[in-house]
Amino acid sequence: MTTTPSITSIKELSLSLLDASLNDEQVKIAIDQIHVHFQNCIGLSGSETDLHRNAAVNTEYGKALGLTHAAQCLLDYKRTRFFLGGLYAAIRQKQIENPGKQIQVFYAGCGPYAPFFTLVAPLFEVSEVRYSILDINMESVRFATELIEKLGLSSYINEYHQADAITFKIPNAADCDILFSETSDALLYRECYVPILCNMIPQLSDRAIVIPENVQIKMSFVRQDEKGQQTEDTPKVVFDSRETAKASREMARLPDSFPPKKVPIDRNSNIKALVLDTEVHV
What we know:
single chain, five-stranded parallel β-sheet, four-stranded antiparallel β-sheet
């Protein structure tokens, strides 16, 4: 690997983000510094307001984020930190399970920064891990390729793919150790995590790790008593992505929408509000 000043700094910042003792402000500072490095390398900012670059990419089953919105995902500080830690831990786990094996990662939905390549690959030797990366947006693939080349990380790449992860057939899928797809918006709106799972999980071996392992939508009621005190019920799962992916193996194609979830409500239950949460398992 050719070492550049930027990649040296990024490696140090990535290692710092694995430190569980970092507080939220320290995490923000580290990721903002990474963002500046990426912006300086390829001239693309996650803070841009250009309408063309922000335009979403229509797909058969939803919408993929536009160029700058995809870059902006890096600046979702807690999300970036948890995904970074999860993928790093998954690679280490696979190394323990398979001593001496070069771990193969397939990264679906990399965006223009490919952050879970550019932040993770420098923490390993090329002999330890290699990636194939994919994005539906041609511009994202172009920027990600440029960034990876300028950081001197091209030797970690098997292949680049510009394609729809919902229909893409992974080359040598049985050899894939980790599938990483950071494509999950709130309440699974717009982005295509569920159909990506439905397409890709059946292609993988049973030993492959998937990150996020699951995304669930949970529902709860907020109730108010006669004194105005509010309490929230224990959340219940109303949609489970992995269960849906498992069931999809028996479908010819995914439905345009899933059956509505009906929840009985007692008219005397003093319900004040309905809460829906997206729970991402990393």
